[in-house]
Each structure stands twice: as structure tokens, then as C-alpha cells.
């Protein structure tokens, strides 16, 4: 039975391309490709299709021709991107300039250095000879670490340092030193170590909390990436330990290790409760705060007491005017609890806090803060707050509903009462330590610490994030 589909389409077969040797001008002369159809007719990309060839052959010819151009006897491919742009030159330059000036690009470029061109690997003269291994490549001595590489590792850390916080810890160290009288050189090292640990811990906190901003600028990991930010933070932990070793005091190394363990214990439990939607008890929460928020406060004071010429040196005949010894750790632990619970209240109820850091930021994070814990445990059968925390909502209407529920459960009143109890306890401890130290030093130290506590009771000054 004869086919009704018409004649078969031509079949094109490519012949071998002839590529002569390079000319003196390093140009190749390429003979243009020819094709044959099913009837054996030769066709050239530049010649019109023979009679009987199909439209497909015509398209093929045009397609091939569009990819080549003639230069005398030479035919070269035209696959280069055209120099002209879809945008005028001035507009294109403006677009490029705006991209290069964006904050993210500028911040990234500040800590990015173009690597040097790699050195060529020496090749053997004889191509059949075994590969040549450069002398010193294997079993060479460890080269000294360069400052250029150091800047690369510290990029995320330095970026955050350029946007400092309120530095509450340095203020507290200065106030307590009126009592502890740590030598200037030792105090400088301790202050530096505490600052390094605090900044490094923020790099990790921002990753674990999926934060977008820190101190009003994009978080470090949004610019340098999560792996580089984490590595930079871990690197600084060990740089701080290296600095601490300059004190030549074994007790400081033990203190450092103990408090870093506490910091990670506190952070680990906080993350576990958030990610598993597990509401802790108030006692568990205060323990977590003591490890996490109070950890750096406590680390600073313990290191200062280890370096103080007076604390714990009674056997050596060095005592305070009163002849008594002192221990500031219980006071600073109480201050750490006070800071955190007050911050929890401010986060959910202060208009000033909301204007600076966003409305009810802790609810969006899904955090079990002190007022939230009280409201949930006040009525365990009501799952309202648990469900809101689960959503990690950014809806302000939902957040305001959650706040109204906590007000109904008197959670803010209860939390404020706990803050007042902690404040009274801290004031009592300050007075007791002032008497123990005695003299001008006792009075001056007490004034400094009372000044810090007083700021917590002023709404405009109370917005002091413990993590800042």
C-alpha cells in the first residue's frame, strides 16, 4: 500500500571538517562544512537548498550560517556575547554602581581579598616522564600564620565589632573593681576576654535564633554565610583562652572552662524547649538563665576574684579594711536573673522596646519567656499560648491577643513581683559587701553597682537586652 504522507524528508550527513595547521598569525582556516541529502546532493550552509530539499533543510542551512561569518577565506564562530547591552551605557553603568554599593556587597567586600594567582605546576620536559613534585610540598614545615588569613577567619567577628552594643559587662566590671582592686594589666585582659566571648556568642545566637538584624544591621551570617560565622565564633573562643593564658594563673583556665560549659548548657536547654514546644518550670527556667545570661557576668567576676590581691588572700595577710573576705558571685548571679526577667517583661509589654526591637519579638521566636511560662502553667488546660508559640507568628493582632491573655492571667504582675524581690535581694547584697570592703573603696563600688540597678527601673533605660 502506497504511503499517503508524501516523500520522506531529506537526511543530512556531515562530512569531515578540514582544519589546516596554524598560520603565522595564529589563525585557523576552516573549510566550511558540507552536507548531503538522501539523494546524495551536496549542499553548503552558504548555498541555497537544492530543488526538492525540505523546509527543514533550509532552516538547518540558515541556523548554521547564523553561527559563522566570513573574513576573507576564514570562517570563525560567532558565539561571543555581543558587546552592546539591552540598556544604554549610562543606565548600565548606573545599575552596576547601585549593585556594588549595596550594604551586603560592601560588607562582604570589606572582608574579602582576591586570592593570588596560583603558581604554575612545573611540567617535565619529556611528556612520558613521571610527574614532578615541587620540592618542599610534602613533609614541609608548618608555615607561619599570616595576618591576611587571620582577617578572613575573623571577618564575621570584626563585622559585629564595628557595630558595638551597650557593653553592660564592661560597665559592671569597672564598678566591681572598686571592691576587687584587680591590677590594671590583669583587668585589661579579663575585660577583653569577656568582650570576645560575648561577641562570639552573639554570632552563634543569631544563627540559632534565625535572626535577621543585630544592632540595627544585617546579622553576620547573612553576609558571610552560616559556616563561616560559626567557625569565626568558635575560633574566637580559643583566641580568648589564649589571651587568658597570659595571666599565668591556672585557676583562670578552670573558671573559663566551667563557665563556658554553663553557657552551652543554658543555651542548649533554651533551644530544646523552643524546638520541642516544651514549657519548662519556673525553677528550670531560672536555672537556664543562671547558666546562659548570668554566665558571662559570673565569668567576669570569678576571673577578677582570682586575680584580686585581696579576695581569698587572708592567709597572705592581705585583707580589706574590715578584715573580712568577700565573694561577689552571688550578687552578680542575682543581677543576671534580674536582667533577664526584666527583659522578658519589656519584650512583651514595653512600647519603647517595641519601637526599638519590634512588637513581642519573643513570641515570633517561639520563646518560653518568664511571663509566658507563668501564663501557660496558670491554666495547663488552655493551649492558647502554646499554639501561638508554635506558629512563630508575625501577625501583630495575634501577638496582641497573646499579650491580652497574659494580662488576664496576671502574668506580668507576677513577673514584676519576682523582679522586685530580686532587686531587693541585690540591694541587700550590695549593702553587705559595702560594709565588708569598708572605706572609700567600699562606698565607691556600691555607688557604681547601685547606679546600674537604678537604670533598670527607668523605662527609657531599662531596654538593655542582656544579649547586647
From TrEMBL:
EC number: 2.5.1.29
Biological process, per Gene Ontology: alcohol biosynthetic process; isoprenoid biosynthetic process; mycotoxin biosynthetic process
Ranges where the record places region Disordered: 1-99
Family annotation (Gene3D superfamilies): Farnesyl Diphosphate Synthase (1.10.600.10)
InterPro entries: Isoprenoid_synthase_dom_sf, Polyprenyl_synt, Polyprenyl_synt_CS
UniProtKB keywords: Magnesium, Metal-binding, Transferase
Record's compositionally biased regions (Polar residues): 21-73
GO terms, molecular function: geranylgeranyl diphosphate synthase activity; metal ion binding
Signal peptide: none
Domain of life: Eukaryota
The family this protein is said to belong to: Belongs to the FPP/GGPP synthase family.
Protein name in the entry: geranylgeranyl diphosphate synthase
Organism per entry: Venturia inaequalis
Amino acid at each position: 500500500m502506497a504511503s499517503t504522507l508524501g516523500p520522506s524528508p531529506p537526511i543530512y550527513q556531515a562530512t569531515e571538517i578540514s582544519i589546516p595547521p596554524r598560520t603565522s598569525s595564529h589563525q585557523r582556516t576552516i573549510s566550511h562544512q558540507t552536507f548531503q541529502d538522501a539523494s546524495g546532493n551536496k549542499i553548503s550552509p552558504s548555498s541555497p537548498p537544492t530543488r526538492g530539499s525540505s523546509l527543514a533543510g533550509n532552516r538547518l542551512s540558515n541556523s548554521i550560517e547564523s553561527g559563522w561569518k566570513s573574513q576573507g577565506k576564514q570562517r570563525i564562530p560567532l558565539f561571543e556575547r555581543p558587546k552592546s547591552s539591552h540598556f544604554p551605557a549610562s543606565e548600565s553603568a548606573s545599575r552596576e554602581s547601585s549593585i556594588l554599593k549595596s550594604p551586603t556587597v560592601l560588607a562582604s567586600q570589606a572582608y574579602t581579598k582576591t586570592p593570588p594567582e596560583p603558581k604554575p605546576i612545573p611540567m617535565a620536559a619529556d611528556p612520558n616522564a613521571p610527574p614532578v613534585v615541587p620540592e618542599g610540598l610534602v613533609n614541609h614545615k608548618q608555615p607561619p600564620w599570616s595576618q591576611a588569613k587571620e582577617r578572613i577567619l575573623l571577618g564575621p567577628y570584626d563585622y559585629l565589632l564595628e557595630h558595638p552594643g551597650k557593653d553592660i559587662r564592661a560597665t559592671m566590671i569597672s564598678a566591681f573593681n572598686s571592691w576587687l582592686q584587680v591590677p590594671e594589666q590583669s583587668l585589661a585582659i579579663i575585660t577583653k576576654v569577656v568582650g570576645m566571648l560575648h561577641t562570639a556568642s552573639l554570632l552563634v545566637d543569631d544563627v540559632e535564633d534565625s535572626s535577621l538584624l543585630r544592632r540595627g544591621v544585617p546579622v553576620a551570617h547573612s553576609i558571610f554565610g552560616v559556616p563561616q560565622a560559626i567557625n569565626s565564633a568558635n575560633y574566637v573562643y580559643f583566641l580568648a583562652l589564649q589571651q587568658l593564658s597570659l595571666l599565668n594563673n591556672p585557676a583562670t583556665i578552670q573558671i573559663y572552662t566551667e563557665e563556658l560549659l554553663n553557657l552551652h548548657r543554658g543555651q542548649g536547654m533554651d533551644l530544646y524547649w523552643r524546638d520541642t514546644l516544651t514549657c519548662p518550670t519556673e525553677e528550670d527556667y531560672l536555672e537556664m538563665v543562671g547558666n546562659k545570661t548570668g554566665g558571662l557576668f559570673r565569668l567576669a567576676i570569678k576571673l577578677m576574684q582570682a586575680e584580686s590581691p585581696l579576695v581569698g588572700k587572708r592567709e597572705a595577710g592581705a585583707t580589706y579594711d574590715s578584715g573580712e573576705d568577700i565573694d561577689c558571685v552571688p550578687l552578680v548571679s542575682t543581677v543576671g536573673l534580674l536582667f533577664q526577667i526584666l527583659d522578658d517583661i519589656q519584650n512583651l509589654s514595653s512600647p519603647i522596646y517595641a519601637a526599638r526591637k519590634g512588637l513581642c519579638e519573643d513570641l515570633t521566636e517561639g520563646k518560653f519567656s518568664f511571663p509566658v511560662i507563668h501564663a501557660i502553667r496558670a491554666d495547663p488546660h488552655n493551649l492558647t499560648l502554646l499554639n501561638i508559640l508554635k506558629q512563630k507568628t508575625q501577625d501583630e493582632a495575634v501577638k496582641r491577643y497573646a499579650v491580652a491573655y497574659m494580662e488576664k492571667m496576671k502574668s506580668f504582675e507576677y513577673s514584676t513581683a519576682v523582679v522586685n524581690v530580686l532587686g531587693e535581694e541585690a540591694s541587700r547584697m550590695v549593702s553587705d559587701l559595702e560594709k565588708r570592703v569598708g572605706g572609700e573603696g567600699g562606698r565607691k563600688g556600691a555607688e557604681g553597682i547601685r547606679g546600674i540597678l537604678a537604670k533598670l527601673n527607668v523605662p527609657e533605660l531599662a531596654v538593655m537586652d542582656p544579649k547586647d
